[in-house]
Amino acid sequence: MADLRIKIGKMLWKNPVTVASGTFGLEFAELFDLSKLGAIVTKTITLLPKPGNEPPRLAETEAGLLNSIGLQNPGLENFIKNDLPEYQKFDTNIIVSISGSSITEFSKVIKNLDKQPNIDGYEINISCPNVENEGIAFGIDKGIVYNLISHLRKITERTIIVKLTPNVTSIEEIAKAAEKGGADVLSLINTVYGMAIDIETRKSKTKNVIAGYSGIGIKPIAIQNVFRVAKVVKIPIIGMGGIRNISDALEFIIAGSSAIAVGTQNFVNPFATLDIIQGLEKYLNEQKIHYHDLIGSVR
Amino acid sequence: MPYKLLPIFKKELINNKYFIITFSDYEMADQCHPGQFFRLKNPQQNFPILPRPFSVNNIQDKQTSFLIKIVGESTKNLFETKIGENISLHGPLGNGFKIARNKKVLIVSGGIGYAPFPFLLKKLEKAKDEIVFFHGGKSSDDIFSANVINFTEDGSVGKKGLVTDGVEQFLQKNQVDIVYACGPQIMLKKLTEICKQFNVDLQVSLETIMACGIGVCCGCAIRIVENGKMVYKKVCKDGPVFDGYTVVWDE
Ligand SMILES: Cc1cc2nc3c(=O)[nH]c(=O)nc-3n(C[C@H](O)[C@H](O)[C@H](O)COP(=O)(O)OP(=O)(O)OC[C@H]3O[C@@H](n4cnc5c(N)ncnc54)[C@H](O)[C@@H]3O)c2cc1C
Ligand SMILES: Cc1cc2nc3c(=O)[nH]c(=O)nc-3n(C[C@H](O)[C@H](O)[C@H](O)COP(=O)(O)O)c2cc1C
Ligand code: FES
C-alpha cells in the first residue's frame, strides 16, 4: 500500500486530503467517519458572532458557484463551547480557520484557542477587510500580511497556515511575506471575485453585489497560482479551487501542492474526499512513484 | 440523512410541464415526514453542478415520489433520465410540517406548491383532522387533482380567480384552526395577511437556493423575527416549514 503520510507544518497527516473552510462541518459525520481525512478545517470563526450578509447569498453559474455568506459564524465563545468538543472526537488534525478585522482581534482569538487542547493548527483567513487600514483586505498588501503573521507567530507555537486570496496583482509577493512572517504552511486559493446579473430585474443575483466564485470554473486559475507560489516559497502548500475528483487533485499536487482541499464539491458529492484518498493510492501504485516525489513534479 | 443512488422506478409526465418521478426503497419511504425534502441529481450530469431540492410528494406502497415542474436544466435533465438509470438522493432533509390532531385544517397551495401536500394529506387524515384543500394555478395545466377546490386565473378549470381570494371568503364563513401553505412568495405573503385577520395558525413551506442542504454553508438564509429581533434562519435545516407570522417577506 502506498504511503500517503505527510508533514504539513508541525502536523503529521495520515493522507494529504482535507476540506476547504466553509464548505464542510460536523453534519458530514452522519455520512462518513471524519477520522479518515488528513485534517479537518473548520468554518471561519471570529471573536464575536457574525450574522452574515443579507440574502440571497448564492447563485449557481454555468461553471461554478457564487457565494456571499459574509462569514456567518457563532463567534469564538460559542465555537469553543459547542463545536470544538465535537471536532475533538475525531482522530485527525483539527485546524481552526480564523478571521478578524484587526491584528488585535486575530491575536485575541488565537490566545483563547491556544488554551484549548487538541487543536493542531490555525488557518488565517486574510481575505477580510482590515479596519486599521481603511477596510482594505489584509491579504492584498504584503506589508500588512507580514505584520499580521509575524505578530501571530510570537503568540502561538501551533502550525500557522496562511490562506491566500487570488484577487491580487502578485500572489508571489504575498506568499513570500507570509513565509517571512513565520507561516508554516500556505493554503490557496480562496474564492475569486465574481458577479452574475438577473437580466429580468437587472439586479445582481446575490444581494451583496460582488460575490466569491468557487467550483470547477476556478480550477485553472487556482492551479496556476499554486504553480507560481510553489516556485518562490519553501513551506508546503495546501492547494484548492474546483477540485472534484482524483484527476483534479493530481493536477494540484503535480503543480506543487503538498496537500489538497475539497470545497464546493462537498455539496455535490459528499464522499469526494474519500474517493480522492482511494484514487491517490491507486495512482501511486500504478505509477510506482512515491507521494513525495509527485509533489511539484510538473515537467 | 442518507445519501443513496437509486434507479428511477417510475416516471410520468403531467400536463406537459410537470412530472412525477418515483423511487422504490423501503428504508427511505419509512424515514420521510411530510414537508421534508431530498436533494436530487443525475450523477452523470456535470452541469448544473448542485443537486436540487424537491419535496416528498407522496409515499405509497413504500415508494417515494416527487412532483417536479420543468423550469431549467436540472429539472429537464431529471425528466430526461430514463427509467432504471440512477439518481443520487440525499435526504430526507429539513423539519417538515407539524401534524395537527382533531383540528379543522385548511391546505392552500399555488402552482408547484402543491408538491408536498398529497403526503401531508394522508397523515392529517390519520390524525383525524377535518380537511379542506384549496389549490390555485394560472390555467388548467397547473391543476393536479379534481378532488380539491381548484382556482385558475384564466378560469379554465374550477373557480376563476386567485386562490387567496377564495381563502379570504372561506375564512369569513368558516372556522379554521390551522392553515398549511406552500407556493410563490407573493401568495404566501398575502395569505399571511389574511390569516392574521382571522387569527388562524399558519405553517408555510419556503424555498431558497441551496448549496449543501444540511446547514453547513449558510447559503439558504431567510429573515425570521424571533423574540422581537430579526435573525437569519436556514431554510434547509431550521425549515423549510416556518410559522408564517415570523417570516419577514421580501418587498
Ligand atoms: C425545500 C425546497 C423544496 C422544493 N420542492 C420542489 C418540488 O417539490 N417540486 C419542484 O418542482 N420544485 C421544488 N423546489 C424548487 C426546485 O428546487 C427548483 O425549481 C430547481 O432547483 C430548479 O432547477 P433547474 O436547474 O431546473 O432550474 P434553474 O434554471 O437552475 O433555475 C430555475 C429557478 O429555480 C430556482 N433554483 C435555482 N437553483 C436552485 C438551487 N440550487 N436550489 C433551489 N432552487 C434553485 C431559482 O429560483 C431559479 O430561478 C423546491 C425548492 C426548495 C428549496
Ligand atoms: C459557501 C462557501 C463558503 C465559504 N466560506 C469560507 C470561509 O468561511 N473561510 C474561508 O477561508 N474560505 C471560505 N470559502 C472558500 C473555500 O474555502 C475555498 O477556498 C474556495 O471555495 C475554493 O475551493 P472550491 O472551488 O473547491 O470550493 C467558502 C466557499 C464557499 C463556496
Ligand atoms: S443550503 Fe447550506 S446551510 Fe442551507
Structural topology:
The complex is a heterodimer of chains A (299) and B (251).
Chain A: E1 6-8, E2 11-13, E3 17-19, E4 39-41, E5 58-61, E6 64-67, H1 76-87, E7 93-98, H2 103-114, E8 121-125, H3 142-155, E9 159-163, H4 171-181, E10 185-188, E11 192-194, E12 197-198, E13 203-204, E14 211-214, H5 219-232, E15 237-239, H6 246-255, E16 259-262, H7 272-287, H8 291-294
Parallel strand pairs in A: 3-16, 4-7, 7-8, 8-9, 9-10, 10-15, 15-16
Antiparallel strand pairs in A: 1-2, 5-6, 6-14, 11-14, 12-13
Helix pairs in contact in A: 2-3, 3-4, 4-5, 5-6, 6-7
Chain B: E1 3-7, E2 10-14, E3 18-24, H1 26-31, E4 37-41, E5 52-55, E6 58-60, E7 63-69, H2 73-80, E8 86-93, E9 104-110, H3 117-126, E10 130-137, E11 149-152, E12 159-160, H4 163-173, E13 178-182, H5 185-198, E14 201-205, E15 221-226, E16 229-234, E17 241-243
Parallel strand pairs in B: 9-10, 9-13, 10-11, 11-12, 13-14
Antiparallel strand pairs in B: 1-8, 2-3, 3-7, 4-5, 4-8, 6-7, 14-17, 15-16
Helix pairs in contact in B: 4-5
The complex binds flavin-adenine dinucleotide, flavin mononucleotide and FE2/S2 (inorganic) cluster.
Query: What is CATH's topology name of the largest domain in chain B?
Result: Rossmann fold
At the first level of CATH, what is the class of chain A? Alpha Beta
Shape of chain B: globular
Count of runs of 4 or more consecutive helical residues of chain B: 5
The value of Rg of chain B in angstroms is 18 Å
Compact description:
With 299 residues, chain A is α/β, with parallel strands linked by helices. Chain A has helices at residues 76-87, 103-114, 142-155, 171-181, 219-232, 246-255, 272-287, 291-294; strands at residues 6-8, 11-13, 17-19, 39-41, 58-61, 64-67, 93-98, 121-125, 159-163, 185-188, 192-194, 197-198, 203-204, 211-214, 237-239, 259-262.
Structure, described:
The complex is a heterodimer of chains A (299) and B (251). Chain A is α/β, with parallel strands linked by helices and 299 residues long. Chain A has one domain (6-53, 76-192, 212-294): TIM Barrel (Alpha-Beta Barrel). Chain A is built from 8 helices and 16 strands. In chain A, helix 2 (103-114) runs parallel beside helix 3 and helix 5 runs parallel beside helix 6. The longest helix of chain A has 16 residues, at 272-287. Chain A is globular and about 50 Å long. The two termini of chain A are 26 Å apart. The model of chain A has no long low-confidence stretch (mean pLDDT 96). With 251 residues, chain B is an alpha/beta fold. Chain B folds into 3 domains: 3-93, Elongation Factor Tu (Ef-tu), domain 3, CATH 2.40.30; 101-203, Rossmann fold (3-Layer(aba) Sandwich); 208-251, Dihydroorotate dehydrogenase B (pyrk subunit), domain 3 (Ribbon), CATH 2.10.240. Chain B is 20% helix and 36% strand. Chain B has 5 helices and 17 strands. Chain B has helices at residues 26-31, 73-80, 117-126, 163-173, 185-198, and strands spanning 3-7, 10-14, 18-24, 37-41, 52-55, 58-60, 63-69, 86-93, 104-110, 130-137, 149-152, 159-160, 178-182, 201-205, 221-226, 229-234, 241-243. Chain B has a 7-stranded mixed β-sheet with strand order 12-11-10-9-13-14-17, with helices on both faces. In chain B, strands 1-8-4-5 form a 4-stranded antiparallel β-sheet. In chain B, strand 15 and strand 16 form a beta hairpin. The longest helix of chain B is centred in the last third of the chain and has 14 residues, at 185-198. Chain B is globular, with a radius of gyration of 18 Å. The model of chain B has no long low-confidence stretch (mean pLDDT 96). Chain A binds chain B through residues 22-25, 27-28, 30-31, 43, 51-52, 55-60, 62-65, 67, 69, 72, 215-216, 264, 266-271, and chain B through 1-3, 41, 43, 46-51, 88, 90, 208-223, 231-232. The complex binds flavin-adenine dinucleotide (FAD), flavin mononucleotide and FE2/S2 (inorganic) cluster.
